[in-house]
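Limitations

Structures in this collection are predictions, not experimental determinations, and the ligand pose is part of the prediction. Treat each record accordingly. The example that follows, with (2R)-2,3-dihydroxypropanoic acid as the small molecule, is included so readers can see exactly what is and is not provided: the inputs are given verbatim, and the output is the predicted complex.
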Amino acid sequence: MTEDLIKQAKAILRRNDRGSYTVPTHGLYPFQWNWDSCLSALGFSHFDEERAWTEIDTLFANQWPDGMVPHIVFHEEDDGYFPGPDVWRTGRPVPTSGITQPAVAGFAVRRLVDRARDRELAATRARALLPRIHAWHEWFYRCRDPQGTGLVAIIHPWESGRDNSVDWDDVFDRVPTDGVEPFNRRDTQHANPSHRPTQAQYERYIWLVQRFRSLGWDNTKLHDASPFQVVDPGFNAILIRSSSDLADLAEQLDVPEIAAQSRGHAARGVAAMETLWSDGIGQYLCQDRTTGTLIKSPSIAGLLAGFAPIPAPRAKAIAERLTTLGGQVDHLVPSHDPGAREFDSLRYWRGPVWLIVNYMIADGLMRSGEAAIAQRIINDSLRLIERSGFAEYYDPHTAEPCGGDQFTWTAAIVIELLSQELTPA
Ligand code: DGY
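Predicted complex:
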């Protein structure tokens, strides 16, 4: 069974491989996506290390001069996706979007180095990527934390990767829709519309894109100009974990300045995460930066926070909350609390299970010594694959496969889970 699943997963990676980058899935997502690529590299690393490094190199070859790494790189023309480069108009040599995505690169590169069979290849490629990843992290703290709080804000839901999370509902009321140019969605032609974000949400996504475009994609202006500024604990946890991993890597490669600065970012981030903790719900919450208030929405963001080196009592509380959720669904981890009114088991980030998030939560909790719940998450993830194949996401009750199929990062995580033991640090 294990061998067979790995074989199927490899075939998906090969099928979605476009030579120097992979597409997340055929049709629905025909370009290179930032965090998809970095997580997919983990899958490649088990059978083709050179190809794994190329995936991340290609992404960073399209880094912006200010340090940002865009969320999409439009390597080839494809009118099957909206919004394409003609909407973003960022003026980059290879067209890209103008916003970013969760900073998983630092974590992924460290993992590639740790497990490298070809040590020389790994040292060369990691040494070249180190200052680039560091420049991205510095960009985050400069442009998305202008007040120096220790935590960065996202300015568009697409940056979190959790496009239509319940977390954004109230803040999204503040985003207008006047002046949105007419558009034709393409996602609903590739995937079941009832599994995707709504039209009202899309209008606001595009309003934000047009707003940032009108400011010339100048990242010294976008944060303050955005009516959507949210501090997402999961997004910050990924950045903190990557900063901490980058610090370790920089020490190994003898680059002390990057090591010290990265260590500082991680320490400040972990301390500042305390401001997002909710004793009442037993997890971290998002914060609406424009009002300073916590958003009382029990989503997976506050559980993904366990991916960062958070204090042991917080990890324990997250493990307890996951255990409770585990009594309510067949498959952990639902992307929203099934007891909440807004929960929707089939609609994208409002309830379904995502394997990449499961992987990161399990990895973090394993390191914190919460092995039992981490193992349950891994077992549930693999049961989903056995029942329903390599989908984009799954109904946590029925395991119904949703969204795109033959999905690259789902396949990559299956290879990752089946090829290595997650062990306590
Ligand atoms: C989409 O198009 O669905 C993406 O999530 C935006 O990156």
